[in-house]
């Protein structure tokens, strides 16, 4: 990363590694980062009876991309399968042409085919995804060695990825150069700590259980550390724009403040957050919110939640909106407590971060997203949303999960 970009710079922080801090006061809605991925890979198993409904290059929905006037059937007919493997489907010949020179080169195509013969639908989904990631990474080393080195420079080391790497490495038909299995182990660790999930489109029915359509590794976005009450959040617009991600300030911060994302939805309970951060990211969070919640009693815990926590397992990837079925969310009474504290009736001030939940959590049913003001450079959109009665001190907030826009009084 450049020394300074979009108002943030990289510093080393003891116990946290690299961190991004504001080099000047930043205002809510300001874009601090917009960038393209180093690599992307599909979140669909390699061997499955149902084909991915997303283009294997741009990851837009095959049935609802660009021309909305076309019927779903027409859209599928106009999609384009790779003529070599016929397994990867693209929304257009243009997407296939680009992919055939980058992500779906003949080497990647042949290697994915070989992996499809070696893995079974009964193998864990994680193994399928690790296979896809390794193919994407080694393929990157062939056509973009600089980006491959960026990938290797990301944070990540892990001891529990060795068996997956040993299983997959020999299947990589053969790796494009003399990479050892240790490189595969190292790469899988980068993926585990740095991949962002690009989610399928939001629907109220699925809510926070919607799944990931693709994973992406982004060179600078990977430098944001975590905070359970983040001051920035990330947006993507896969179906309407592209697979770039944007990080926007949720609220104003002074110069020198570290800019953090939440690595998962902010409405997870203290225990779940601590557990995920320790198991998946290797640190115990001591942010302001955790310090407060560490003192909360477990009196209100639902026994079913305890069971769900015990059963919960799997590959958890840095993803603000990613949420797997069965994970506990902050309890309703906590939200009530938040609202009470926001109104100022809570004399015990047990929940000093209540303001965050009231102001910056989307209140749409089943969403759980985070709200950030529209970028200051988009006044026209803000104007459109304002009713005749709204004042110039209103701010338009956008949800990073469902995309809802709502006006709030400053
Ligand atoms: C995606 S990387 C973030 C950038 C990383 N600090 C670096 O040096 O590249 C995630 C890793 O950063 C560290 N980290 C992130 N947030 C942290 C926090 N709140 N406290 C301590 N370490 C944190 C952990 O080691 C975590 O596995």
UniProtKB/TrEMBL annotation:
Residues 297-347 are annotated as: Disordered. It comes from Ficus carica. Gene3D superfamilies: 1.10.220.160, 6.10.140.2220, SET domain. It comes from the Eukaryota. This is SET domain-containing protein. PANTHER family: HISTONE-LYSINE N-METHYLTRANSFERASE ASHR2. SMART domains: SET. Residues 3-264 form the SET domain. Pfam families: SET (PF00856). Residues 303-340 have a biased composition (Acidic residues).
């Amino acid at each position: 990363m450049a020394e300074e970009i979009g108002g943030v710079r990289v510093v080393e922080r003891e116990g946290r590694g690299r961190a991004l801090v504001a080099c000047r006061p930043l205002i809510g809605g300001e874009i601090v980062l917009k960038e393209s991925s180093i690599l992307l890979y599909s979140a669909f198993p390699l061997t499955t009876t149902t084909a991915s409904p997303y283009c294997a290059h741009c990851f837009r929905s095959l049935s609802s991309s660009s021309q909305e006037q076309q019927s779903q059937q027409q859209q599928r007919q106009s999609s384009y399968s790779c003529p070599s493997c016929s397994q990867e489907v693209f929304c257009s010949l243009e997407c296939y042409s680009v992919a055939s020179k980058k992500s779906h080169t003949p080497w990647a195509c042949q290697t994915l085919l070989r992996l499809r013969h070696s893995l079974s639908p009964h193998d864990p989904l994680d193994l399928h995804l690790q296979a896809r990631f390794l193919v994407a990474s080694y393929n990157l080393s062939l056509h973009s060695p600089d980006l491959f080195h960026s990938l290797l420079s990301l944070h990540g080391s892990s001891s529990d990825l060795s068996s997956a790497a040993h299983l997959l490495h020999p299947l990589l038909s053969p790796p494009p150069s003399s990479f050892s299995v240790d490189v595969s182990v190292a790469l899988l660790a980068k993926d585990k700590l740095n991949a962002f999930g690009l989610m399928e489109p939001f629907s109220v029915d699925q809510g926070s259980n919607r799944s990931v359509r693709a994973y992406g590794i982004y060179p600078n976005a990977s430098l944001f550390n975590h905070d359970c009450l983040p001051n920035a959040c990330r947006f993507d617009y896969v179906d309407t724009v592209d697979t770039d991600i944007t990080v926007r300030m949720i609220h104003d911060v002074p110069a020198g403040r570290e800019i953090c994302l939440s690595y998962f939805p902010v409405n997870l309970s203290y225990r779940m957050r601590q557990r995920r951060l320790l198991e998946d990211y290797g640190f115990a969070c001591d942010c302001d919110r955790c310090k407060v919640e560490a003192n909360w009693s477990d009196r209100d815990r639902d026994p079913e939640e305890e069971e769900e926590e015990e059963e919960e397992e799997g590959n958890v990837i840095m993803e603000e909106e990613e949420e797997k079925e069965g994970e506990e969310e902050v309890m309703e009474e906590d939200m009530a407590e938040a609202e009470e504290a926001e109104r100022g009736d809570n004399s015990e001030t047990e929940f000093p971060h209540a303001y965050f939940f009231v102001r910056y959590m989307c209140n749409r049913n089943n969403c759980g997203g985070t709200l950030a003001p529209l970028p200051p450079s988009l006044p026209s959109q803000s104007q459109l949303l304002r009713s005749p009665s709204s004042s110039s001190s209103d701010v338009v907030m956008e949800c990073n999960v469902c995309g809802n826009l709502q006006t709030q009084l400053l």
